[in-house]
Structure formats: structure tokens, C-alpha cells
Specification:
This protein is an alpha/beta fold and 367 residues long. It is built from ten helices and 22 strands. Strands 6, 9, 10, 11, 12, 13, 14, 15 and 16 form a nine-stranded parallel sheet that branches.
């Protein structure tokens, strides 16, 4: 099967020619003659997705994953981490079990690469939309309990909390990626966390200690360390355009896009749930009653277009949605469009609008 595209993003560069898929994998690139139009790229990888299309993953069942996955495919996502906000341990256990069941079911849609636990090991000074009642200090016993309930691929925690550095090392030794966020860490504590094995910063410039010229804190350290991935929500709400552009310019090929989407994404205005919180959505800003931003309604394709609007090239923006997030998880089977790789592909038009999405060579969305 040929995708009928004019060119493709292969190994970080645009290559003229079509893409051929066989037995669920990329069989060839640069195929002649090229298709009439369109750009093929690896499907988008979203590391932070709290919910989508009316579904809140903290309360989702397997059937809900089917609906959310179908809607995510429309936005070019072929792999993602359902993200669970801080909650009581028993709620997390149920949610982890449902996500594992969904991942093990032949759902027609994006791959579930595991779960992102955004909490409960977060700072009470920077809870964001997390319910402070559910925040805990790092606890290896609790971590073991949660890991036993399902597949955890990524954990966001505050590295300055007692026991956090030990937990970072313990998780890293088990192949679980750690990102720092919702944190009051100073620069020294941030360096210690990244030295201990943390790989990324969660939604840079949101919900952590503010930048100061004598102590740049978590963000300042993450932006200059070559071993740290900088994850950002480029929706025009979480970050001013100048701030988002500055983070991208500083991080370069370490800059990754996430949506932080919640149930209202692809659903419209209304009142929704985010874990135990009620979120009101009017336009692009989901918020709690006190005005705190609570997730987003951003989609990955829109994030790519937004980054291009800030000055990135199409190639740079697409890599920020594919290769970079895959690297956080140390996954070689997603985020790249190369011969032999699984045929998880998004086809885009000249405006970077999604025209088709394939997972394992199966078309799961077509415009």
C-alpha cells in the first residue's frame, strides 16, 4: 500500500517521494513517482493527556478509551500516555487497571504506551489544578503499590521533597521515566534531580518556582542542561508567545510538545471533571472556580501549527511532537518514520492539517 504523499519526514529531514507500507510496517520511503500532495510524518506522541472527547482518564473504563482514541486519531496522535492527576491510591489503582486493560484490548486507535502519573508526589506550594488533599511526600511503598496496578511509563514529581531523589533513582532503575514538575525546587535541587536520573521538566514555566536571576530554579536548569527534555504546552494560554518561543529557542532539539488535554478537548464549552475537580471551560481556557488553569483543550496538531507560528520550521515542530517525546520514554518503536518501523503515520496537508492517521498500517482516520 502506498500513502500517496509528495514527501515524508525521514530521519529528521524532508525526503521527496511516497511511502510504502507492508504488513503494518514502513516498507520503503522516497518511492517514485511521488504522490500528488501531502506530507507523511511519524504519528504524534502525547506524553500528557488527562482526557479527551468527554473522557477523564482518572475515571475512564475500557469503552471510554475507545471513544477517546478515535478522537485523538483525528488530531494525528498515534501513541499517548493517559495521564492521571493526583488522587487517592485506590482511585489510581482502578484507573491504572483500566488503562492496562484498554492497552491490552484490540482498540482501533492510538497505542497506549503506559500511564503518566502526574502526582501524587507534588509540592503543596505549586499544586496547580491538583487537589491538595491528595498530595503525598515521595513514598516507595506507595510507588510499588501503584506500579503493581498497571503499566506506569512516566512519573512527574517534585524533586525537592524528602525522599524524592531516592525515588527518582529507584524508578529510573526500573525503566520508568521521571519528569520534574509542580515543584518549588531551587537550582541546586533541580541539578540533583537530573543527576539522579530525571529526564524532563513537566510543562515548563507552569506550576513551579518562578525564575529569578540569582536562582533560575527548575526551568532555568532544564533549559540549559543538554540531557533534559523541555516539555511545553504551546496553546497560547499556559505560556505567552514570547515565553514559549524563548523556551523553544533555548532548548532546541530538546523541546517537546505536550497537550495537557482534559476531557473538554474536542468537546466544546461546558463543565467537566479532572480527577476530583470540576473544571469550567469557556473558550480556550479550562479553569477551576478560583481561576486556576486546569489542563487544556489543546490538540497535538494545533500545537505543531502553533510552534510553527512562533518561528519553528515544519520539520522542527514535527520532531517536537514525535522524536522528542519518544526519546523521553526511550522508545525506538514510535516517533520515527523509517523503513522497518511500525507504520504509525500522520498525513498532513500544506497547512499542517491532518488528512489521515495510520496505526500499524491501519487507517484509523481519514478526512
Amino acid at each position: 500500500m502506498r500513502l500517496g504523499v509528495r514527501h515524508a519526514l525521514v530521519a529528521g529531514a524532508l525526503l521527496a517521494g511516497d511511502v510504502r507500507v507492508q504488513h503494518g510496517r514502513i516498507a520503503a520511503v522516497g518511492v517514485r513517482p511521488p504522490g500528488p500532495r501531502g506530507l507523511a510524518a511519524a504519528g504524534f506522541v502525547d506524553l500528557q493527556c488527562n482526557g479527551f472527547a468527554g473522557v477523564d482518564f482518572t475515571a475512564a473504563e475500557v469503552r471510554d478509551y475507545r471513544a477517546a482514541g478515535a478522537a485523538l486519531a483525528v488530531t494525528g496522535v498515534t501513541a499517548y500516555l493517559p495521564t492521571l492527576v493526583s488522587a487517592p491510591p485506590e482511585r489510581h489503582e482502578r484507573a491504572l487497571a483500566e488503562a492496562a486493560a484498554a492497552a491490552g484490548t484490540a482498540l482501533r486507535g492510538p497505542r497506549i504506551l503506559g500511564v503518566h502519573l502526574e502526582g501524587p508526589f507534588l509540592s503543596r506550594r505549586w499544586p496547580g489544578a491538583h487537589d491538595p488533599a491528595h498530595l503525598r511526600e515521595p513514598d516507595r511503598v506507595l510507588a510499588e503499590r501503584l506500579l503493581a496496578a498497571g503499566h506506569v511509563a512516566l512519573v512527574t514529581l517534585a524533586p525537592e521533597l524528602p525522599g524524592a531523589l531516592e525515588l527518582i533513582g529507584w524508578l529510573s532503575d526500573r525503566g520508568i521515566a521521571v519528569s520534574c514538575g509542580h515543584s518549588d525546587a531551587d537550582a541546586a535541587q533541580a541539578h540533583a534531580a537530573f543527576d539522579a536520573g530525571a529526564r524532563a521538566i513537566t510543562h515548563v514555566h507552569n506550576a513551579h518556582r518562578r525564575w529569578a536571576h540569582r536562582d533560575p530554579g527548575l526551568a532555568g536548569v532544564a533549559l540549559v542542561r543538554p540531557d533534559v527534555t523541555v516539555l511545553a504546552i504551546v496553546d497560547g494560554v499556559h505560556l505567552a508567545p514570547e515565553v514559549a518561543a524563548g523556551a523553544w529557542l533555548a532548548a532546541g532539539d530538546r523541546f517537546g510538545l505536550v497537550t495537557d488535554a482534559m476531557a473538554a478537548a474536542a468537546s466544546g464549552d461546558g463543565d467537566y471533571r479532572l480527577g476530583s475537580r470540576t473544571v469550567r471551560v469557556r473558550g480556550p481556557r479550562p479553569q477551576l472556580d478560583d481561576g486556576t488553569i486546569a489542563g487544556s483543550v489543546l490538540t497535538m496538531d494545533a500545537a505543531v501549527r502553533n510552534l510553527v507560528g512562533l518561528g519553528a520550521t515544519e520539520t522542527q515542530a514535527l520532531l517536537a511532537a514525535t522524536r522528542v517525546p519518544a526519546r523521553v520514554l526511550a522508545r525506538a518503536d514510535v516517533g520515527e518514520l523509517t523503513p522497518g518501523a511500525p507504520a504509525d503515520v500522520v498525513v498532513l496537508d500544506d497547512r499542517l492539517e491532518v488528512r489521515a492517521t495510520y496505526v500499524g498500517g491501519e487507517r484509523v482516520f481519514a478526512d
